[in-house]
Specification:
The protein has 257 residues and is α/β, with parallel strands linked by helices. It has one domain (2-7, 17-253): P-loop containing nucleotide triphosphate hydrolases (Rossmann fold, 3-Layer(aba) Sandwich), CATH 3.40.50.300. Helices cover 33% and strands 26% of the residues. It contains eight helices and eleven strands. It has helices at residues 63-70, 93-103, 119-130, 136-145, 161-173, 191-208, 219-222, 245-253; strands at 2-4, 19-30, 37-48, 52-56, 78-83, 86-87, 104-108, 179-183, 212-215, 227-232, 235-241. The strands form two sheets. Strands 1-11-10-4-9-8-7 form a seven-stranded mixed β-sheet, with helices on both faces. It has a four-stranded antiparallel β-sheet with strand order 3-2-5-6, with helices on one face. Helix 3 (119-130) runs parallel beside helix 5. The longest helix has 18 residues, at 191-208.
């Protein structure tokens, strides 16, 4: 178990081929004057391919802003965001939209399923929007691994919360993304369903080599990750390798969470 301050690289980004996603010296400010909020204040982090990462921190520490910048949902005021060797801060809005559609998966707390589409239609929607063919073998494998075979023709309103979240996970996996970003994915689930979902995400990393970056406030959820990154005042201030819930909880208390 390693708990230490996070080394912030200076100068040029690392050229390691195992780094699939990274943020370097990100600054993000909202508002001006007395209402100015510095959400990110030089945040730097690297995420290796095939890793499971949890981002944690007190309320207002910049967790969601960092994830949104990493995922191309928001633009930093300065700094670099790298995905698969490409600086995505240089892309225009159309290019960013294509990147998010083709190379990034998202899992949200609110599921964000379209209510008029069946579970199967929701899962393959990213491919439909991209005009891409469905890889039937991959679809079948994802559906089977999430035990959704008997729910594909159901509308979201006919599914439990846990089933809806599993559909959302399948939708995130269907494009074989470089990185999956998960924003409080267990926030709307009970403890048993949460544990099942987190174990599945853990298996996606271990068995499929998927890369997952998860924002969470839950030390138990963070315990499934390979590494926890803790933010405070817009900076990465600590990382924890091979975390467990007790160590994460103790670390969070240091920063008022």
């Amino acid at each position: 178990m390693l708990v230490s301050t996070y080394p912030i690289p200076q100068g040029q980004p690392a050229q390691s081929t195992s780094v699939i996603s990274a943020a370097y010296n990100l600054i993000k400010v909202y508002g001006k004057g007395e209402s100015e909020v510095r959400a990110l204040n030089g945040a730097t982090a690297e995420f290796n391919q095939g890793g499971f990462y949890a981002i944690m921190g007190p309320s207002g520490s910049g967790k969601s802003t960092l994830m949104h910048c990493l995922a191309g949902l928001d633009r930093p005021d300065s700094g670099q965001v790298i995905l698969a060797g490409m600086d995505i801060t240089t892309l225009n809005d159309k290019e960013l939209t294509r990147l998010r559609r083709d190379r990034i998966g998202f899992i949200f707390q609110a599921f964000n399923l379209l209510p008029t589409l069946t579970a199967k239609q929701n899962i393959v929607l990213p491919l439909e929007l991209a005009g891409a063919k469905v890889d039937r073998a991959h679809l079948d494998a994802v559906v089977a691994s999430l035990h959704l075979e008997k729910r594909l023709d159901h509308l979201p309103s006919q599914l439990s919360g846990g089933q809806q979240q599993r559909v959302a996970v399948a939708r995130a996996l269907i494009t074989k993304p470089d990185v999956i970003f998960a924003d409080e994915p267990t926030g709307a689930l009970d403890s048993s369903t949460s544990a099942q979902l987190l174990q599945y995400l853990r298996d996606c990393v271990t068995n499929l080599g998927q890369t997952i970056v998860m924002v969470t406030h839950d030390p138990n959820a963070a315990g499934y990750a390979d590494k926890v990154l803790i933010l405070s005042d817009g900076q990465i201030v600590m990382h924890i390798d091979h975390p467990n819930a007790d160590v994460v909880l103790g670390a969070m208390k240091q920063f008022g969470a």
